Every structure is written in structure tokens, then in C-alpha cells.
Amino acid sequence: MTNANSKFKALNFKHILNLRFLFLDLPVPTRGCEIAKRFRFPGRRVGFRISDLGFRISKTRLLSSFIFCLILFLPWKTSALTLSPPILDLTASPGEIVTSSIVLENETNLSLSISGYVEAFAPDAHSGEAEFFPSNEGLVSWIELGEREFVLAPGEVKKVFFKINIPKDIRPGSYYAAVFWGTPPPLGVSSGARVASRLGALIFLRINGYVSENLELKDFGVKKIYTALPAIFSVRVKNSGDVHLIPKGEILIKTLTGKQVAVIPWNESNFRVLPGGERVIEAKWGRGNFFEEVKVGGTGYYRASIHISYGSPIKETGDFISFWVLPIKSLGIAISTLILLAFFARACLKTYNKWIIRRHLGS
Fold it and tell me: Were both Cys, which of 205, 218, 253, 348 would link to 262 (CB 3.0–4.6 Å)?
């Protein structure tokens, strides 16, 4: 046992002890090992004093390392002003007073001076997205904020109320406005102008009465040939009625023989189409992987039909279109695999034939 320990101590540990610990900048050990603390190895025992390795870790370095780990790994709270809900769908009758509220939360570590104001918005002629602008007419002039300016303490959650005074002689239909909250504007700028940072809640108000609900399907398009999935369907609709609509629908995809291979939901995000506006809402079929293309049949002619419902009572519209899926990449993989399998089978057959001949000659 003594000889084993002597041989083990005689080993040169210099290449181990000269390792520098870059993060802590540990010095190279200079003193030899002394048997003080034992470590177990297969078939023998050997030990050394850890202090003899020459590791000199100062308190400053330890503290710096600890702070670095805190900065790197501990979660940090996001600093922001949040608002909910972002969209309010309200229904009322002429002459009615509607009361609603918006919740603001200060997630920063500082007090925030908040100011509120109201703007009108209308749909963009091409994208259908809302465009905001100052106005003193329509729904903007009916909204009365309970508080226009206040201070939010750090972490404070505040519910801000507002009233909508609807005129008695107002025509039935849809009316729109946006209530914005944010930091005050610079000096000399009106409260209706843009502020340094702001959050807004969209208000969709529907006045009861006889209204016209009409949605036109202007275009249902897709590429004629796809060399790989996914296939993107583009649906353009126009609202030619008096109220905003949230159309819902699905796209059915069938093969040439009529077999249904997919049902794709359309407008799952509940995009609104405002009166007089057009909007393009897309849907996607497939994720673009080889196994999915094989599962749906991969190659061939497909027919897609869209069915859209909207309004109350429910009205429907729809259209159909055809396209081809010719997955060149997937076909190349399949053909290459078949060729490799054919070569492998041929090689196996040759090897087997040689083995049969050698066995026959040997016997």
C-alpha cells in the first residue's frame, strides 16, 4: 500500500496545477502537495491539502462574481405602462348614457404623470388598419373622461372611468374612437397631439336600430403552383354596410377525387372590417415539412373553397379556387431514397449469389 501511495505522489501534477481559472484569475500554485485531506481512487488512497494548491481567492473577487451571477441569471421586471382591455365592443340605444372603464397599471419603479385624450380613427383604404386623427365630431365629442390627468405611483393599478353621452337623434350604425393614455405632451403642444409614449383602447360603439350588414368577398387568391408547403391563401373582403363586422370562416381543401384533406380556420384573430373599408386576411395550409406533404398526398391537383359567415342574423358568402402542389424537394428525396434502396438490394443480391456459389463449390 505504501509503494502505491509513493508512486502516486511521484506523479507529475504540474499540468493540472498550472491551469488558470480565467474568471477568478487564480494564481499558479507553487507549493507541493501535502497529505491532509483524502480523496478516494480505485485501489488506493491519496490526499493533499487544498490550500497547498495556491488558490488565493479574495473577498472582492468573490463578491464581484456573485454580483455578476445575479445580473446574469436573476429575472428583471419589465418597466412599462400597461392598459386593458385594448378593445371595447359596446352597444347602446339613442339617448342612452353608457359608462365603461379602462385599467392602467404602472409597472415601473417611478411615479408617472399620465394624461388622457380621445381621437377618432378610420380604416386605411388598402390595409384596413386603423388610422388615428384628432376630431371634435361623432363619438369623440360624446366621450367624457372621468380624469384627464393624474399620477400613478410605482406598481399602482388604477381603474379610469368614462361616460358616453349618446344623442337622441343619432342614426343607427357603428361609431369609433380611441382613448389614449400616456406621458404629457411637450409645452406649447395641445393635449390632442402626439405624446412621448402612449397606449390606446379602441372603442367600437354600435347604435341599435335598423342597419345594413353586407360583406363582399372581393378576391380569394392563391399561387397556381407550389413546389413546397405551406400554401398561403389571401382573402380580401369589403364591408359595404353600416356597421363593423367580424367575419369568420373556414377553407376546405380537397383532392381531384373529392377527398377532403384539410380544414383551415379563417380569421381566428377576429379582425374587424369597418364600414366602407377593405381588408386582406390570410390563412396558411401546412408547415412545410416532408412528412406532412407525404401525409396529405404530397403531389397533385387541389381545390380550395372558402365559406364566410357574418352579421346577425348570420349571412354567408364564399368562393373556390384550384392549385397544384408539386414538391420538387420532397420528390427528389423520395427518388434518391428509392435509388439508394435499389443499389443496396442489388449489392445484397450479388453478395448472396456469391455466397451460394461458394457454398455449392465447397460442398
Answer: 253
